[in-house]
Design goal:
Elements lengths: L23 H12 L6 E5 L5 H9 L4 E6 L8 H4 L3 H14 L3 E5 L2 H6 L6 E6 L5 H11 L3 E9 L13 H10 L5 E3 L9 E5 L6
Parallel strand pairs: 1-2, 1-4, 2-3, 4-5
Antiparallel strand pairs: 5-7, 6-7
Helix pairs in contact: 1-2, 6-7
Length: 206
C-alpha cells in the first residue's frame, strides 16, 4: 500500500548518521511488539520528520506495510535535527522512499488522517509527532478506533530519562487520560528507555 508519496526526484544516498531520535533499543522493542502480534501487518508512525525511524522499522519488518505521517512544517522536539530544516528532512524522506518500498508517506495532520482512515486495521501505532498533550489526545481519539483488536500503541518520549536533556510530559498525560477508560493497559514486556507500549486488556480474547 503506497499513499500520497513525496515527489521523489534524484536518488538519495543512505544517511551517514542515524536520523531517528528513537534509540536503537526502542526500535528493537517496537519490532518485537509487532512480531508478537503477527508476521505481516500494518504499522502507522505519527511523526515522520527525516524518515529515519520509518526506515529502520521497515528494514526490520520487511513484510509489513509502514505508513508514516507528518505535517510539514511543524515544531520539532529533537534539537539535533531541527536546525537542519524542513527541506533537509523531506530530502531525507525522499531517499528513504526510494530505498524502502514498504513505506508510504502521508503529509497531513496526524489526527485528521486518523479520523478519515479508510485503510486496513492498524497493528502498531507509533506516536511520536507533536508531543503536546492536547494534540496527542486528538491522535489517540482518532486512531484507536482503527486499531486491530490485538494491536498496540507505542509512545516515544513517554518516560522521563534524566540524561536525555528533554522530556515531554504531554505524551504521558495524554496516554493516561485517554487509554485506561477505554480498557487499554501498559505492557511492560515491550517497554524500553523512553518507550511505553499499550494494548487492550481484552486482546487475548480476540
Amino acid at each position: 500500500m503506497r499513499m500520497a508519496l513525496l515527489d521523489v526526484r534524484d536518488p538519495v544516498d543512505p544517511p551517514a548518521e542515524r536520523t531517528s531520535s528513537v534509540r536503537p533499543v526502542e526500535i528493537e522493542t517496537i519490532v518485537a511488539a509487532a512480531r508478537d502480534i503477527r508476521p505481516v501487518g500494518v504499522l502507522v508512525e505519527l511523526g515522520t520528520w527525516a524518515g529515519g525511524t520509518a526506515e529502520e522499522l521497515a528494514a526490520r519488518l520487511p513484510d509489513w506495510s509502514i505508513v508514516t505521517i507528518d505535517s510539514y512544517p511543524r515544531s520539532v522536539h529533537c534539537e539535533k535535527f531541527a536546525a537542519k530544516g524542513v527541506r533537509w528532512a523531506q530530502d531525507q524522506v525522499a531517499g528513504v522512499l526510494k530505498r524502502r518500498k514498504n513505506i508510504s508517506q502521508v503529509i497531513s495532520d496526524t489526527a485528521t488522517v486518523g479520523a478519515r482512515w479508510a485503510g486496513p486495521p492498524v497493528d502498531i501505532l507509533l506516536v511520536d509527532s507533536d508531543h503536546r498533550a492536547k494534540h496527542v489526545v486528538r491522535e489517540l481519539r482518532a486512531w484507536t478506533p482503527h486499531m486491530d483488536r490485538r494491536g498496540r500503541v507505542c509512545f516515544h518520549d513517554y518516560f522521563y530519562l534524566p540524561d536525555a536533556g528533554d522530556w515531554h510530559p504531554g505524551v504521558h498525560e495524554a496516554a493516561e487520560y485517554v487509554l485506561p477508560p477505554r480498557g487499554w493497559v501498559r505492557v511492560p514486556q515491550f517497554e524500553a528507555e523512553s518507550l511505553s507500549t499499550w494494548e487492550r486488556q481484552d486482546r487475548r480474547d480476540a
